[in-house]
Input
Amino acid sequence: MPTFPVRTPSASYDAIVERGALAQLKAHIPPRAGRVFAVSTPDVWQLYRERFTAAMGGREFDVIEFAGGEERKRMSEVEVMAEAMLARGADRSSLVIGFGGGITTDLAGFLAAIFMRGVPVIQIPTTLLAQVDAGVGGKTGANLVSGKNLIGAFHQPLVVLTDPDLLATLPAREYVAGLFEVLKSGIIRSPELFRVFVERPASLLRREAAPLEFAIAESVRIKCEVVSADEKEGGLRRILNFGHTVGHAIEAETAYKRYLHGEAVALGMKAAIHISHLTGRLPADLAADMLTAIDACGAVPSAADLSVANLCARLAQDKKTLQGSVHFVLTSGPGETEVVSGLPLEVVREAVATAIQ
Ligand code: GLY
Output
């Protein structure tokens, strides 16, 4: 059973990656936990209610369903959920379980972080993107009108149960969006994972068991290692934002409606690859391999109509901007990254323009 430890100053826990991991749920509920609240969306709950209930092995629990979607990832939803918990007898001994995609795990984690100043959370991510990124590492939050994830808290889970079996029902578009984040993990920290995208992309697209399990486990391993080294994103954790600087600008410019997060990150990674090449860090052949690997995962909605000037203006508003300076994670080859600021605007403009063609 691939188990990856996260060891941070605030918590120690494991991310378990295994087919059927959901079935272990009851064993991970602390014996002294009070009422258990599963936070999920109707689509996930309809598909997996029976499996989840069986995994609870007769232990009583409540379900809090919310409609899902980026526009409902709001503080007001967290309040509604907290009121629902109270109405059903929650107290400081309660436990929250996030059971869904990244929006669910972020919101459930945030609910747990602030309910009565903090109750524990178990994360069971059900989308590829949440399994390899959002569900691990303790970032939780909600959106403001002004932007994504602008309020939130670091709240590490008790355990992350990553069950690749749950991906069987994931719609193709969401699966591909998750693959882009897996590819990101390969580019930033695992030449071996990157090679799977170069040599056998079709096997990943077919969701073949062996390469997919390797890809998930390797991404989770990387995430756990990075979070253990830098829980609060003071340094190393920033490499996980490869492709996110421009990706976030694209999501904001399209009002979070046109792209799934992973799709916007795919375009953002293209921009980061172009900048890496234009600034002399990344040789042309490696840049071409990376761009081909992105395209091999699948197409994303066209961005050709977006204004490069608007996107560049939005870069400065990103929450990753530090003291007014836009930071990019750049690469000089698979497994090699560097966080760079103060890049010439013309280079950024050219890279963004090429990436969205
Ligand atoms: N998704 C980036 C991080 O968890 O740091």
